[in-house]
Amino acid sequence: MSRQQRQTLDDLLRHGPLDLGGDVAEQRAVFHNMMTSIPLPSDVSTTAGELGGVPVVTVETPTNDPATVLVYLHGGAYAIGSAADAAGLAGDVARRTGARAVCVDYRLAPENPFPAAVDDALAVYRALLDDGVPSSAIAFIGESAGGGLAVATLVAAKDADLPQPSSAVVFSPWADLSVSGDSAVGKAAVDPALTSEGLRTRARDYLRDTDPATPHASPVFADLTGLAPLLIQVGSHEILLDDAVRLAARAAAHDVHVELQVWPQVPHVFQAFATMLDEADTALRAAAAFTRAHWAATARCVRHGVGGE
Known about the structure:
- The structure is a single chain.
- The chain is α/β, with parallel strands linked by helices.
- 39% of the residues lie in helices and 17% in strands.
- The chain has an eight-stranded mixed β-sheet, sandwiched between helices.
- Helix 4 (116-130) crosses helix 5.
- The radius of gyration is 18 Å and the shape is globular.
């Protein structure tokens, strides 16, 4: 794990053009250019489609097992980013898990405020179930806002009496839209990518008049009882560190199988930089192992008639 690798990535992010709290139209273009600046590997395919009335992009590699599905929720503070922009990281996860990734192009704020994103993610999950994909063969993956959205969607699925997926993995989840964690201030100097002011701007766009403590918006305030097993990965150099720690504590208090991995001296969604950071590749392998293990465990339960679908 090279100190030089971490420093190079820090410099890249700290001096990059993205301003999360800036003009939405401008930042969408900046984010798109950043996320697509490196071409996808030649063996990664993307197919645009629709599930449950929601646009999706399916990302596949030659070794994917079509029987297993990742519901992938992209980041961008609910205001920027897209399913297509997320294809690179989704492809990395798909390759390591051996599953196809369905990237959800959920509606963005400020044009489509809360609960549009949750409604869209839940609609895609419901459509997969209606298409005959068992919940035991589905896992959720989310990064940043998509990480918070993944957990919020699991809560919404529980509230709708839908079965839980086999597991969920979230990278640097934005799980508290009130931005009230101690790390929002305490980690500001070392976070090269995010600012509390930027997050609060995007939270206002997404929430409008909704209370930030609403469970489907900020799952750190939700009843997580009965949720699928959860893996949370976060870097110690990010203002959302406390979101991850508090989410893990909340899940543990509600008897959820939860694992928290804090990676030292790496930034927000460091997993996206597997080509330049050793920790990113190691974290992705750990996420894939967690996902595959819970697919195997739920499959055994289904075979023996214990839980599952």
